[in-house]
Amino acid sequence: MNRVLLRIGLAVAPILVSLLVTTVIILVVGASPGEVFENVIEGAIGSNRSISGVVNYWIPLVLCSMGLIVTFTAGLWNIGVEGQMTLGAVAASLLARTFGETLPNEILLPLEIIAAMIGGGAWAALVGFLKVRLGVHEIFGGVGLNALANVFAIYLIAGPWQPPEGGSLQATAPFAPAALFPRFSTDFPVSLLALILVGIVIVMITLVLRGTRWGLHLKATGKNARSALLLGVPTMRSAMTAFVVCGALAGIAGSYRALLTYGSLRPFASGGIGFLALLVVLVSGVRAIWTPLIALVFAGMSVGSITKLPIALRLDQSLSGVLQGLVVLFVLLGDGVRQRFFNKEERIG
User: Fold this and answer.
1) For all residues of the chain together, what is the average pLDDT?
2) What is the pTM of this model?
3) Spatial contact of 309 and 317, defined as CB atoms under 8 Å apart
4) What's the CA gap between 150 and 166, in Å, rounded?
5) Which of 125, 175, 191, 240 is most exposed by smallest CB count within 10 Å?
6) Neighbouring C-beta atoms of residue 17, cutoff 10 Å
7) Is 242 helix (H, G, I), strand (E, B) or coil?
8) DSSP string computed for 262-309
Protein backbone atom coordinates (compact mmCIF):
# COMPACT_ATOMS: atom_id res chain seq x y z
CA MET A 1 0.00 0.00 0.00
CA ASN A 2 2.82 2.40 0.87
CA ARG A 3 4.52 1.65 -2.44
CA VAL A 4 1.32 2.44 -4.34
CA LEU A 5 0.86 5.73 -2.50
CA LEU A 6 4.49 6.62 -3.12
CA ARG A 7 4.12 5.93 -6.85
CA ILE A 8 0.98 8.08 -6.99
CA GLY A 9 2.72 10.87 -5.08
CA LEU A 10 5.73 10.82 -7.40
CA ALA A 11 3.38 10.95 -10.40
CA VAL A 12 1.31 13.88 -9.10
CA ALA A 13 4.14 15.91 -7.54
CA PRO A 14 5.68 17.09 -10.86
CA ILE A 15 2.34 18.58 -11.96
CA LEU A 16 1.89 20.40 -8.66
CA VAL A 17 5.47 21.70 -8.70
CA SER A 18 5.11 22.99 -12.28
CA LEU A 19 1.89 24.81 -11.30
CA LEU A 20 3.66 26.30 -8.29
CA VAL A 21 6.60 27.55 -10.37
CA THR A 22 4.22 28.96 -12.99
CA THR A 23 2.33 30.77 -10.22
CA VAL A 24 5.57 32.36 -9.03
CA ILE A 25 6.36 33.49 -12.60
CA ILE A 26 2.89 35.02 -12.95
CA LEU A 27 3.36 36.93 -9.70
CA VAL A 28 6.76 38.18 -10.85
CA VAL A 29 5.25 39.71 -14.02
CA GLY A 30 2.63 41.44 -11.87
CA ALA A 31 -0.48 39.41 -12.76
CA SER A 32 -2.95 37.47 -10.67
CA PRO A 33 -2.47 33.67 -10.87
CA GLY A 34 -6.16 33.12 -10.21
CA GLU A 35 -7.16 35.39 -13.09
CA VAL A 36 -4.64 33.80 -15.43
CA PHE A 37 -5.78 30.23 -14.77
CA GLU A 38 -9.44 31.28 -14.85
CA ASN A 39 -8.99 32.97 -18.23
CA VAL A 40 -7.14 30.00 -19.70
CA ILE A 41 -9.92 27.65 -18.59
CA GLU A 42 -12.60 30.01 -19.90
CA GLY A 43 -10.73 30.36 -23.19
CA ALA A 44 -10.71 26.57 -23.53
CA ILE A 45 -14.24 25.61 -22.46
CA GLY A 46 -16.14 28.89 -22.08
CA SER A 47 -18.27 28.49 -25.22
CA ASN A 48 -19.02 26.15 -28.11
CA ARG A 49 -16.52 28.03 -30.26
CA SER A 50 -13.86 27.64 -27.58
CA ILE A 51 -14.51 23.91 -27.19
CA SER A 52 -14.49 23.41 -30.96
CA GLY A 53 -11.19 25.28 -31.13
CA VAL A 54 -9.70 22.91 -28.57
CA VAL A 55 -11.02 19.85 -30.43
CA ASN A 56 -9.72 21.15 -33.77
CA TYR A 57 -6.30 21.65 -32.18
CA TRP A 58 -6.46 18.27 -30.44
CA ILE A 59 -7.16 16.30 -33.62
CA PRO A 60 -3.83 17.02 -35.39
CA LEU A 61 -2.00 17.03 -32.05
CA VAL A 62 -3.13 13.53 -31.10
CA LEU A 63 -2.47 12.22 -34.63
CA CYS A 64 1.13 13.44 -34.44
CA SER A 65 1.46 12.17 -30.87
CA MET A 66 0.28 8.67 -31.78
CA GLY A 67 2.72 8.64 -34.68
CA LEU A 68 5.54 9.69 -32.36
CA ILE A 69 4.58 6.87 -29.98
CA VAL A 70 5.57 4.52 -32.82
CA THR A 71 8.96 6.13 -33.47
CA PHE A 72 9.74 6.56 -29.75
CA THR A 73 8.96 2.87 -29.25
CA ALA A 74 11.60 2.13 -31.89
CA GLY A 75 14.07 4.39 -30.07
CA LEU A 76 13.86 7.17 -32.69
CA TRP A 77 13.44 10.93 -32.18
CA ASN A 78 11.34 12.00 -35.15
CA ILE A 79 11.93 15.74 -34.83
CA GLY A 80 10.92 16.06 -38.50
CA VAL A 81 7.22 15.63 -37.76
CA GLU A 82 6.64 19.35 -38.43
CA GLY A 83 7.93 18.99 -41.97
CA GLN A 84 5.88 15.84 -42.44
CA MET A 85 2.75 17.77 -41.44
CA THR A 86 3.67 20.47 -43.97
CA LEU A 87 4.18 17.98 -46.81
CA GLY A 88 0.88 16.33 -45.92
CA ALA A 89 -0.83 19.72 -46.14
CA VAL A 90 0.89 20.43 -49.49
CA ALA A 91 -0.13 17.06 -50.96
CA ALA A 92 -3.75 17.48 -49.85
CA SER A 93 -3.76 21.06 -51.15
CA LEU A 94 -2.55 19.87 -54.55
CA LEU A 95 -5.64 17.69 -54.95
CA ALA A 96 -7.90 20.37 -53.45
CA ARG A 97 -6.69 22.91 -56.02
CA THR A 98 -6.80 20.47 -58.93
CA PHE A 99 -10.11 18.70 -58.35
CA GLY A 100 -11.98 20.95 -55.92
CA GLU A 101 -14.38 22.14 -58.60
CA THR A 102 -14.87 18.82 -60.38
CA LEU A 103 -15.07 16.00 -57.83
CA PRO A 104 -17.68 15.58 -55.07
CA ASN A 105 -16.59 15.69 -51.44
CA GLU A 106 -17.18 11.99 -50.76
CA ILE A 107 -14.66 11.09 -53.48
CA LEU A 108 -12.20 13.97 -53.20
CA LEU A 109 -11.73 13.98 -49.42
CA PRO A 110 -10.55 10.35 -49.13
CA LEU A 111 -8.14 11.00 -52.02
CA GLU A 112 -6.81 14.07 -50.20
CA ILE A 113 -6.28 12.08 -47.01
CA ILE A 114 -4.44 9.35 -48.92
CA ALA A 115 -2.31 11.98 -50.68
CA ALA A 116 -1.50 13.58 -47.32
CA MET A 117 -0.43 10.20 -45.92
CA ILE A 118 1.81 9.62 -48.94
CA GLY A 119 3.32 13.12 -48.69
CA GLY A 120 4.00 12.91 -44.95
CA GLY A 121 5.15 9.28 -45.15
CA ALA A 122 7.53 9.98 -48.03
CA TRP A 123 9.07 12.97 -46.20
CA ALA A 124 9.52 10.81 -43.09
CA ALA A 125 11.06 8.06 -45.24
CA LEU A 126 13.77 10.57 -46.24
CA VAL A 127 14.64 11.01 -42.56
CA GLY A 128 14.69 7.24 -42.19
CA PHE A 129 16.89 6.78 -45.25
CA LEU A 130 19.37 9.34 -43.97
CA LYS A 131 19.36 7.52 -40.61
CA VAL A 132 19.65 3.87 -41.60
CA ARG A 133 21.65 4.17 -44.84
CA LEU A 134 23.85 7.24 -44.40
CA GLY A 135 24.19 7.36 -40.63
CA VAL A 136 22.72 10.87 -40.28
CA HIS A 137 21.09 11.20 -36.86
CA GLU A 138 17.32 11.60 -37.15
CA ILE A 139 17.36 14.84 -35.14
CA PHE A 140 19.66 16.56 -37.66
CA GLY A 141 17.91 15.05 -40.65
CA GLY A 142 14.50 15.97 -39.28
CA VAL A 143 15.41 19.58 -38.50
CA GLY A 144 16.91 20.07 -41.97
CA LEU A 145 13.90 18.59 -43.74
CA ASN A 146 11.55 20.72 -41.60
CA ALA A 147 13.23 23.83 -42.99
CA LEU A 148 13.07 22.52 -46.57
CA ALA A 149 9.38 21.69 -46.22
CA ASN A 150 8.55 25.19 -44.98
CA VAL A 151 10.57 26.83 -47.75
CA PHE A 152 8.83 24.65 -50.34
CA ALA A 153 5.38 25.57 -49.00
CA ILE A 154 6.24 29.29 -49.01
CA TYR A 155 7.51 28.98 -52.59
CA LEU A 156 4.21 27.44 -53.70
CA ILE A 157 2.12 30.05 -51.89
CA ALA A 158 4.10 33.01 -53.21
CA GLY A 159 4.67 31.49 -56.65
CA PRO A 160 2.72 28.85 -58.62
CA TRP A 161 -0.20 28.72 -56.17
CA GLN A 162 -0.50 32.44 -55.50
CA PRO A 163 -4.03 33.88 -55.39
CA PRO A 164 -5.50 35.36 -58.59
CA GLU A 165 -5.13 38.89 -57.24
CA GLY A 166 -1.34 38.51 -57.08
CA GLY A 167 1.52 37.14 -55.06
CA SER A 168 1.08 36.84 -51.31
CA LEU A 169 2.94 35.19 -48.46
CA GLN A 170 -0.28 34.88 -46.46
CA ALA A 171 -2.12 31.95 -48.08
CA THR A 172 -3.30 30.39 -51.30
CA ALA A 173 -6.79 31.15 -52.56
CA PRO A 174 -9.49 29.45 -50.45
CA PHE A 175 -10.26 25.89 -51.48
CA ALA A 176 -13.64 24.89 -52.89
CA PRO A 177 -16.16 23.61 -50.29
CA ALA A 178 -16.05 20.13 -51.84
CA ALA A 179 -12.35 19.89 -50.92
CA LEU A 180 -12.82 20.60 -47.22
CA PHE A 181 -13.58 18.39 -44.21
CA PRO A 182 -17.33 18.62 -43.53
CA ARG A 183 -18.13 20.44 -40.29
CA PHE A 184 -20.58 19.23 -37.66
CA SER A 185 -22.38 22.60 -37.63
CA THR A 186 -21.71 26.32 -37.93
CA ASP A 187 -21.80 26.61 -34.12
CA PHE A 188 -19.49 23.64 -33.64
CA PRO A 189 -17.13 23.59 -36.66
CA VAL A 190 -15.49 20.23 -35.98
CA SER A 191 -15.25 17.34 -38.42
CA LEU A 192 -17.03 14.22 -37.19
CA LEU A 193 -15.20 12.23 -39.86
CA ALA A 194 -11.84 13.36 -38.45
CA LEU A 195 -12.90 12.40 -34.92
CA ILE A 196 -13.84 8.92 -36.13
CA LEU A 197 -10.52 8.65 -37.95
CA VAL A 198 -8.63 9.71 -34.82
CA GLY A 199 -10.50 7.10 -32.76
CA ILE A 200 -9.53 4.39 -35.25
CA VAL A 201 -5.89 5.51 -35.18
CA ILE A 202 -5.75 5.48 -31.35
CA VAL A 203 -7.20 1.96 -31.14
CA MET A 204 -5.05 0.58 -33.97
CA ILE A 205 -1.75 2.00 -32.71
CA THR A 206 -2.47 0.80 -29.16
CA LEU A 207 -3.36 -2.72 -30.28
CA VAL A 208 -0.60 -3.02 -32.89
CA LEU A 209 2.14 -2.03 -30.46
CA ARG A 210 0.85 -4.46 -27.84
CA GLY A 211 -0.07 -7.55 -29.80
CA THR A 212 1.73 -7.86 -33.13
CA ARG A 213 5.11 -9.07 -34.31
CA TRP A 214 5.81 -5.61 -35.76
CA GLY A 215 5.14 -4.03 -32.38
CA LEU A 216 7.52 -6.48 -30.70
CA HIS A 217 10.16 -5.70 -33.33
CA LEU A 218 9.79 -1.99 -32.66
CA LYS A 219 10.19 -2.51 -28.92
CA ALA A 220 13.21 -4.74 -29.38
CA THR A 221 14.79 -2.20 -31.72
CA GLY A 222 14.13 0.60 -29.27
CA LYS A 223 15.54 -1.28 -26.27
CA ASN A 224 18.78 -2.41 -27.89
CA ALA A 225 19.09 -2.31 -31.68
CA ARG A 226 22.36 -4.26 -31.79
CA SER A 227 21.10 -7.10 -29.63
CA ALA A 228 17.81 -7.17 -31.55
CA LEU A 229 19.72 -7.48 -34.84
CA LEU A 230 21.76 -10.40 -33.47
CA LEU A 231 18.48 -12.10 -32.52
CA GLY A 232 17.18 -11.78 -36.07
CA VAL A 233 15.03 -8.65 -35.74
CA PRO A 234 15.05 -6.60 -38.99
CA THR A 235 16.04 -3.37 -37.22
CA MET A 236 16.49 -1.27 -40.36
CA ARG A 237 13.10 -2.26 -41.69
CA SER A 238 11.54 -1.63 -38.29
CA ALA A 239 13.05 1.85 -38.14
CA MET A 240 11.94 2.73 -41.67
CA THR A 241 8.38 1.52 -41.16
CA ALA A 242 8.18 3.43 -37.87
CA PHE A 243 9.19 6.63 -39.66
CA VAL A 244 6.72 6.05 -42.49
CA VAL A 245 3.78 5.32 -40.17
CA CYS A 246 4.55 8.41 -38.08
CA GLY A 247 4.92 10.54 -41.21
CA ALA A 248 1.65 9.27 -42.64
CA LEU A 249 -0.24 10.22 -39.45
CA ALA A 250 1.51 13.61 -39.39
CA GLY A 251 0.46 14.06 -43.02
CA ILE A 252 -3.20 13.53 -42.08
CA ALA A 253 -2.73 16.09 -39.31
CA GLY A 254 -1.34 18.57 -41.82
CA SER A 255 -4.23 17.98 -44.19
CA TYR A 256 -6.68 18.73 -41.38
CA ARG A 257 -4.98 22.06 -40.74
CA ALA A 258 -5.20 22.97 -44.43
CA LEU A 259 -8.65 21.54 -45.17
CA LEU A 260 -10.52 22.64 -42.03
CA THR A 261 -8.58 24.99 -39.74
CA TYR A 262 -7.59 27.36 -42.57
CA GLY A 263 -9.44 26.24 -45.70
CA SER A 264 -6.26 27.03 -47.67
CA LEU A 265 -2.53 26.37 -47.56
CA ARG A 266 -0.61 28.78 -45.34
CA PRO A 267 3.06 29.11 -44.41
CA PHE A 268 4.01 27.16 -41.29
CA ALA A 269 0.60 25.47 -41.37
CA SER A 270 1.78 22.98 -38.73
CA GLY A 271 1.70 25.76 -36.14
CA GLY A 272 4.23 24.08 -33.86
CA ILE A 273 1.88 21.15 -33.24
CA GLY A 274 4.58 18.65 -34.21
CA PHE A 275 6.95 19.97 -31.56
CA LEU A 276 4.16 20.10 -28.97
CA ALA A 277 3.39 16.45 -29.75
CA LEU A 278 6.94 15.60 -28.63
CA LEU A 279 6.15 17.08 -25.22
CA VAL A 280 2.86 15.17 -25.06
CA VAL A 281 4.63 11.86 -25.69
CA LEU A 282 7.34 12.62 -23.13
CA VAL A 283 4.74 13.40 -20.46
CA SER A 284 2.80 10.23 -21.32
CA GLY A 285 5.94 8.15 -20.83
CA VAL A 286 5.47 6.78 -24.37
CA ARG A 287 2.23 5.11 -23.28
CA ALA A 288 -0.37 5.17 -26.02
CA ILE A 289 -3.30 4.78 -23.61
CA TRP A 290 -2.56 8.10 -21.85
CA THR A 291 -1.54 10.10 -24.91
CA PRO A 292 -5.02 11.28 -26.10
CA LEU A 293 -5.93 12.63 -22.65
CA ILE A 294 -2.61 14.43 -22.18
CA ALA A 295 -2.90 15.83 -25.71
CA LEU A 296 -6.36 17.18 -24.81
CA VAL A 297 -4.97 18.97 -21.74
CA PHE A 298 -2.15 20.51 -23.78
CA ALA A 299 -4.60 21.54 -26.51
CA GLY A 300 -6.80 23.22 -23.90
CA MET A 301 -3.85 25.14 -22.44
CA SER A 302 -2.68 26.26 -25.89
CA VAL A 303 -6.07 27.38 -27.20
CA GLY A 304 -7.17 28.90 -23.89
CA SER A 305 -4.05 31.04 -23.66
CA ILE A 306 -4.26 32.17 -27.29
CA THR A 307 -7.89 33.29 -27.06
CA LYS A 308 -7.93 34.97 -23.64
CA LEU A 309 -4.54 36.00 -22.21
CA PRO A 310 -3.51 38.64 -24.79
CA ILE A 311 -6.96 40.30 -24.73
CA ALA A 312 -8.15 39.93 -21.15
CA LEU A 313 -4.88 40.35 -19.23
CA ARG A 314 -2.46 41.67 -21.87
CA LEU A 315 -0.15 38.74 -21.23
CA ASP A 316 1.72 36.93 -23.96
CA GLN A 317 0.14 33.65 -25.04
CA SER A 318 3.54 31.96 -24.66
CA LEU A 319 2.79 31.69 -20.93
CA SER A 320 1.04 28.40 -21.67
CA GLY A 321 4.21 27.22 -23.37
CA VAL A 322 6.09 27.99 -20.15
CA LEU A 323 3.64 25.86 -18.20
CA GLN A 324 3.82 23.04 -20.73
CA GLY A 325 7.61 23.10 -20.70
CA LEU A 326 7.70 23.07 -16.90
CA VAL A 327 5.29 20.14 -16.79
CA VAL A 328 7.54 18.17 -19.15
CA LEU A 329 10.70 19.10 -17.21
CA PHE A 330 9.35 18.13 -13.81
CA VAL A 331 7.63 14.99 -15.11
CA LEU A 332 10.93 13.82 -16.60
CA LEU A 333 12.76 14.67 -13.37
CA GLY A 334 10.10 12.86 -11.36
CA ASP A 335 10.31 9.85 -13.64
CA GLY A 336 14.09 9.76 -13.15
CA VAL A 337 13.71 9.96 -9.36
CA ARG A 338 11.03 7.27 -9.41
CA GLN A 339 13.11 4.87 -11.49
CA ARG A 340 16.24 5.47 -9.41
CA PHE A 341 14.37 4.94 -6.13
CA PHE A 342 12.47 1.80 -7.12
CA ASN A 343 15.39 0.22 -8.97
CA LYS A 344 17.59 0.78 -5.92
CA GLU A 345 14.88 -0.67 -3.66
CA GLU A 346 14.57 -3.75 -5.88
CA ARG A 347 18.35 -4.31 -5.80
CA ILE A 348 18.38 -4.08 -2.00
CA GLY A 349 15.37 -6.37 -1.75
Assistant:
1) 87
2) 0.89
3) yes
4) 21
5) 125
6) 17
7) helix
8) ISS--TTTTTTHHHHHHHHHHHHTS-TTTHHHHHHHHHHHHHHHHHHI
Specify whether the CB–CB gap between 71 and 301 falls below 8 A.
Answer: no
Q: Which of 300, 344, 327 is nearest to 58 (CA)?
A: 300
The rounded radius of gyration (Å) of the Cα atoms in the chain is: 21
Are 157 and 166 a contacting pair, CB within 8 Å? no
The model's pLDDT over 199-209, given as tens digits with 9 standing for 90+, comes to: 999 999 999 99
* Residue 15 confidence (pLDDT): 73
Which amino acid belongs to residue 131?
A: K
Q: Which residue stretches of the chain are H helix?
A: 2-28, 33-45, 48-73, 81-99, 105-132, 138-158, 192-211, 213-223, 225-230, 235-256, 273-284, 291-308, 319-348
Yes or no: domain 58-311 corresponds to CATH 1.10.10: no
How many residues appear in the chain? 349
Angle of CA points 195, 198, 199, to nearest 5°: 90
pLDDT score at 342: 58
Which parts of the chain sit beneath pLDDT 70? 1-11, 166-169, 307-320, 337-349
Q: In angstroms, rounded to a whole number, what is the distance separating the alpha carbons of residues 279 and 287?
A: 13
Taking the C-alpha atoms of residue 126 and residue 148, their distance in angstroms, rounded to an integer, is 12
Domain ranges of the chain: 58-311
* Residue type for position 27: L
